[in-house]
Amino acid sequence: MNQISDKCLGGHIKRKKLAIVAGSEATKETLCQQMRQFLADCVDIQGYSEEIPVQEPIKADLVVMSSKILAEEMAGFVEAGCPVLIVRRSLNVEHIEKLFGIPKGTSVYFVNDLKENAHSCIEALKEIGIDYLDLIPYYPGCRVYKKADMAITAGELALVPESVGKVIDLGARSIDISSIVEILQQLDLMEEKLSLVSENYKENMVRFSSHLYHLFDEAANMNQYLGKILNQINDGIIAYYGNGILSIFNEKSRTMFGPAAAGDFVHNLAMDRQIKEYLLSKEDMSDRLFRLDHQELIFSKVRIEKIDTTVCTIKNAKENKDIEVKLRQDLIRKGYIGKYRFTDIVGSSPVMQEAIHIAKKLAKSDLNLLIYGESGVGKELFASAIHNESLGNRGPFVAINFSALPEELAESELFGYEEGAFTGAKKGGRLGIFEQANQGTIFLDEIGDVSPRIQARLLRVLQEKEIRRVGGSENIPIDVRVIAATNKDLVQMCREGQFREDLYHRLKNFYLKVPPLCARREDIDLLVNHFLQKHGCRQLQISAEVMELLRRNPWRGNVRELENVVEYLMAVCDSGIVETAHLPEGFFEDIRSGWEGASGEAPDKDLNRYTESLWEKGNLAEYLFFLNLIKTYTDKGCTISRRTMTLRAREQFPYLTEERVRKKTDDLQELKLITKSVGRVGMRLTINGMKYIEYNNQFAPIYS
After folding, report:
1. Which residues of 490-510 are buried (b: 16+ CB within 10 A; e: fewer)?
2. Is position 601 within any domain?
3. Start and end of every Sigma-54 factor interaction domain (predicted)?
């Protein structure tokens, strides 16, 4: 049974309110008691009836009406805006055996409060096999056209005419399980309570079936009633003894598995071997999902040790919306889960910690999110961590990479297809990943590679929150959080007409930038150790010279490239210590080219001359502050104005004016440590500027 979440702890979470309105006090008490057994720990339930005048408007998160007529009569007593649900009700079958001794053809009143209710109860009795009695509807104000000495009622004893000699009370009609599911949906308690409701439903059916079975065993002619009752249930019900002999096999089971009856063996049924093994296993009592003849079926078992019997209910996943939670759990078992958490993200650098901090905040919302980052920085890792930190973390996490998916397959993969939609379509159709990700998260990687046609369909999904399968005509509602990722400039693509601007803004409710590895070189040591442990090679040592070269490498492939290099070193190093000779061919060329600019300029080797020049011009600490400030903004993909630079500088150097800041930046430009441009480019470090910062940060305490 699922654990009860915070919604049902009743402590810090506001309890919801459920109002139940019935025609009589007795019915009110029955319905309230029924719902309290499921919701008492997290919902305040208040009952009302027509027999006692309502003093104040009824106000609740959901108002339940026991009938349509009652809803019309009590509409004026419900506060405006409160959602109202008219529930379906079913007969209490626990006392149905009281009717079996009534002689065939006997005239019997069926007494209820309303004409419609009396007629519907009579029809319900006929459906379960009580069709041999002359049932006469009786209700207040009705015209009695035939006399009867016996009456049956559903909890309305006060309405039975005094002339009746014998009364059989079946008890007030309870709320049907389909309406209970609707109540859970309205109160947003499906995940927390559906399992409890389902178990209670199965236990009642098992208890009822077992009780009837013993009664019918005493009189063979009564077996037909049990079959008729079970055949009215829209689920397959199979009961069998420990030796595998069937005792119950209802009509729905026959439509699923072919003809069979009590006395047949489970191992002779027309079903897969895996299903038979599951049914006959006394240890595996978990709920399971199997596929049979292009149908997805949910199997649930209950073991009754006293009579050495197992009862199994089988639900068709497409026909029973109330098993959606179990279906999602099965999808998670198939691997549709977020594999990573924030604790799996390696990096202690300020820029990485800032990205993690922002991502954790964004995880608390269910709005769409666009992640930007170069190839190999770990965008999917962030997406997975955000999903696992979100409120929908119990739902599936499904990822799709558009760069690896041909356009002709993208549509059917995303939205699914119906049977016969195209040549080669599977019989029975197929769910798309949007449906598979329902109540969870879908990760659209490399969204910049999606075609214009698919862009248009994605936009509609994000706008309408519904999808339509390929070859289908029905719109299917979905509840999915979309996280998209790209390494492309989508803004520029929008300007060039390659990406829809309206789709871009739909995806970018939130935005997260994952920093490249070159912007967090202080994390390289941590990452190298992490990869050595990950691949089971903790004993391998990296020489100081190699580690320094790893820190200097430009890492255009980012973390993915670093991991590849570590794996290479693990493979080629036999001595236990990685030296420069073990580095991949061309590695030093990468380092050299990484420091070269667009003009091919190499960094100045005599960096000390900059220190001497800056000392001559003024306070070296001020110049270093400005260089590091420009680097910080550049690493974040931002530019900095002189005014902003002045405001930041005054936090450390209160005496600096904007004019002095201009003079300092002119000095840095004169030494070719920075470039200054008008417009969006702003101030940026040159190659020598970047090298000089790295060099001087080693001696930061000396100049501070």
Report:
1. beebbeeeebbeebbebbbbb
2. no
3. 345-571
